[in-house]
Specification:
Strand order of the largest sheet: 1-2-3-4-5-6-8-9
Shape: globular
Distance between the termini: 66 Å
Helix content: 40-55%
Radius of gyration: 25 Å
Oligomer: single chain
Structural class: alpha/beta
Strand content: 5-15%
Order of helices and strands: HEHEHEHHEHHHEHHEHEEHEHH
Largest sheet: 8 strands, parallel, barrel
Number of helices: 14
C-alpha cells in the first residue's frame, strides 16, 4: 500500500511536469499577446462632427462641453475656427470627402459612374459617386488634401465616402452596379489578362458579371484600398503624427446580400490594415435599426479587427443625433452614445452640431456623458 501511494504520488508529479512543459509555450504566447495591447488608449476621444464652429457662434465652448476633439468638414475648416479649437486644447480632425463626385462632375461629366446598362448612373437620392479609376479626379483630390495639410497642422484626416456609387444611410439602400466605363473595364481586362468581349459597354458588363464576377468584385475593392493607401501616404508624408481615419458603412458582411463587399466595394479587412482609426457610421434612425444595433456592431467590429492590439485600428464610432428622418429623442441619443462608447471603443463622435443646437437637451446629454469620461 505504501508503495502504491508513492507510485501514484510520483505519477501525479510527472503528469503535472508534463502538462507544464506542454502548456509553457501557450502561457508564453498568452503573455506575449497581452503585451501587444496598445498602451495609448487612456485618453478617450470625445468629439462632434460636422461644422462645430456653429457651437462657438452660439456661445458655447468646446472645453466646457467636455469636447476634446472636433471632426470638421474640410469646407468648414478656416483659420479662426482652427485657432479657437487649439486655444481650447481641442484636437482638430478633418473630414475628407474622398469619392463624393457631386461638385466635380458638374464640370467633368466624363468621370460620371456608368452602370451595367452603359448609362450614367442616376444620383442615389442625395449622393452621387464617381468613377473610382478616373486619373484626373484622383489627382484633384490628392492636390486638395496636400493643400489642407500645407495650411493646417491637423491631428488627423478622416476619409469619407470611401465606397462606390451607392447610398446606405437609409432604410431602403440604393445599390446600383458601377462603374463599367471604358477605362474601368479596360483596366480590369488588363488585370485578368483578357480582352473583354463586347462592342458596347452593356455587353462587356454582362460578360464580366457572368464570367468573372468574383474577380471583378475583388479588383474593385483593391481600387478603393488603393485610394486609402495613396491618400494615407500623403497624410504621413506631410504630417507623420497625424492619424488616418476612415468613416465606413456599418453593415455586417451578410447584410443586403453581402452588399458591403460586393456592391459598395468595401474590404473592411483591407481598411483595418491601412487605417489608424475605423469610424463605423452607426446612424440607427436613418437605417431604421434599434439602438441596440450600435452596441452589437461595435462588439462585432472588436472581434473582427482585434481592436487594441498592435497593428490593429482604434474604433471611434459616429452615432446619430440628427433628426432626419424622424426624430432622435434625447433618450435615444443617450442610449447610442453610451452603447457606442463602450470598450473596445476609445473614442466617439456624434452627428451633428446642427442637431445639438436644435435641441439643447441633447447638448446636456452629451456634456454629461463627456464630462464623466476623464482624460
Amino acid at each position: 500500500m505504501k508503495f502504491s501511494l508513492r507510485y501514484f504520488s510520483l505519477s501525479s508529479f510527472l503528469a503535472k511536469a508534463i502538462w507544464f512543459l506542454l502548456l509553457s509555450p501557450l502561457l508564453f504566447y498568452s503573455c506575449k499577446r497581452s503585451m501587444e495591447v496598445k498602451e495609448d488608449i487612456t485618453n478617450f476621444t470625445k468629439g462632434v462632427y460636422g461644422n462645430p464652429g456653429t457651437l462657438l457662434e452660439a456661445g458655447y465652448r468646446f472645453d466646457s462641453l467636455g469636447i476634446n476633439a472636433v471632426f470638421v468638414r474640410s469646407g468648414s475648416l478656416n483659420p479662426d475656427f482652427y485657432a479657437s479649437a487649439k486655444t481650447q486644447n481641442v484636437k482638430v480632425y478633418v473630414e475628407f470627402a474622398t469619392l463624393n463626385g457631386q461638385d466635380y462632375l458638374k464640370e467633368h461629366p466624363e468621370a460620371w459612374p456608368i452602370n451595367e446598362k452603359g448609362e450614367k448612373a442616376p444620383a442615389a437620392d442625395w449622393f452621387l459617386g464617381i468613377c473610382p479609376t478616373n486619373v484626373a479626379f484622383k489627382e484633384f483630390r490628392s492636390t486638395e488634401l496636400k493643400s489642407i495639410l500645407q495650411e493646417y497642422q491637423v491631428d488627423g484626416v478622416f476619409l469619407d465616402y470611401v465606397h462606390l456609387h451607392a447610398q446606405f444611410e437609409t432604410a431602403a439602400p440604393i445599390l446600383p452596379e458601377t462603374c463599367f466605363c471604358d477605362h474601368c473595364t479596360g483596366l480590369f481586362g488588363d488585370h485578368i489578362g483578357t480582352d473583354i468581349p463586347g462592342r458596347k459597354i452593356a455587353d462587356r458588363a454582362t460578360w464580366i458579371l457572368t464570367n468573372t464576377d468574383n474577380e471583378w468584385r475583388a479588383w474593385r475593392n483593391s481600387i478603393l484600398n488603393g485610394w486609402v493607401e495613396d491618400l494615407g501616404s500623403i497624410v504621413k508624408e506631410y504630417q507623420p503624427e497625424a492619424k488616418l481615419g476612415v468613416f465606413h458603412c456599418a453593415w455586417f458582411p451578410e447584410d443586403y446580400d453581402q452588399a458591403l463587399y460586393r456592391t459598395l466595394g468595401i474590404d473592411l479587412a483591407g481598411l483595418a490594415e491601412r487605417a489608424d482609426v475605423l469610424s463605423p457610421m452607426l446612424f440607427h434612425k436613418m437605417s431604421d435599426r434599434p439602438t441596440e444595433w450600435v452596441g452589437e456592431y461595435v462588439g462585432w467590429l472588436d472581434k473582427f479587427t482585434e481592436a487594441g492590439k498592435i497593428g490593429s485600428p482604434l474604433i471611434w464610432p459616429i452615432v446619430q443625433a440628427h433628426n432626419h428622418p424622424g426624430v432622435v429623442s434625447p433618450e435615444e441619443f443617450r442610449d447610442v452614445m453610451e452603447l457606442g462608447s463602450r470598450s473596445p471603443a476609445t473614442g466617439i463622435m456624434m452627428f451633428s452640431d446642427q442637431s445639438l443646437l436644435e435641441d439643447p437637451r441633447k447638448i446636456l446629454v452629451m456634456k454629461e456623458l463627456f464630462l464623466m469620461k476623464e482624460d
